[in-house]
Amino acid sequence: MELVLATRNPDKIREIKKVLGDLGIEILTFEDFPQFPKIKEDGSTLRENALLKAKEATKFTGKLSLADDSGLEVEWLGGAPGIYSSRFAGENASYEDNNRKLLSLLKNVPEPKRKATFRCVIAICRPVGSRIKDKLVEGVCQGKSTTHPRGKGGFGYDPVFQPEGLDKTFAEIPLEEKNKISHRARALNKAREILQQIIKKKNKILIGLTGNICTGKSTVADYYEKWGVKVIKADEIGHKVLEREDVKAALSQAFGKEILNFQDRILRERIRKVAFSDHDKLKKLNALLHPLIKEEIWRILTGGNYKIVVIEAALIFEAGWDFFMDKIIVVYCSREKQLERIKKKTNLSFEEIPGILRAPLSQEEKIK
Ligand code: ITT
Fold this sequence. Notes:
single chain; alpha/beta; 368 residues; 41% helix; binds inosine 5'-triphosphate; 18% strand
């Protein structure tokens, strides 16, 4: 597998290669593509700029791409230089020019007010047919600006940035040390997980089958199963996850012992009631269960020799899984039909139904 780094900054390339080098993917840069266009970074946030760069790279090369947009945000300067970090002192400013400008703006500012944050946003884009799917991750490193540049290592603002908990600047520590705590390393570690999943997915075609509660997903899933296609049902996996002792312990701690019955088994019905009546609790429940369900789905997915796999899950978009899908099918039906089915299938009262219908993404948004 190949990954194109959509950056022209050799210092970034060095850091990225060091963190992702052992993934077993071939890392390409603009040097492998002589005609690689110069990308205009005219977004208004790091996220927009990172996405812009990765998208352009994928469009140009037709390959999986990764772009990093990063910057230093100084509290005293209202978050500047931020997205203007590389051109803080002017269009073709050198690292030294930028550092000089920063230190002069912070002249006589006392230490407690020199708080600074390094932020790195990484965008990964993958081509799927004629479309480009994207995913964004972020990493931050808190610290402060020094009064003088210190150290010869690193690049950019490294000589004037001292991370929290260290008495040295980024330029005074080896790259291996910087790569344990830096904004880029933190974002790259999240990116690494995503890349690992793409590697595991290989040439399998993943079809996401989604839709809100009681719209008819399972009926569609059953068709695929009948046709001999491997179907993974997130709901079934969720039920199995709920049987795990560690999960039960975590849930009773988060939601109270009353969700376990006298046999100490989770009562799904009760969990559903608790979760759908309270948005914060639902969020907490999802944060606990989603990673475990995802892990199990990937285990099954990569375990067999399947060419096509259908993943039936209500929250494909909400959980950000759409990035990995090659096709997504949204099952929907009329609101009346949905209500009728919810009433029949669950024991919820009419007062509880609005909660369950308040899905994070509406049916219309999913279809769109
Ligand atoms: P590309 O757009 O080609 O990736 P760039 O250098 O223009 O390269 P950015 O727009 O993301 O990249 O600007 C980031 C600037 O922020 C960079 O030039 C440095 O001055 C600074 N910076 C980012 N990460 C840094 C780090 O780890 N250490 C020091 N300075 C950093």
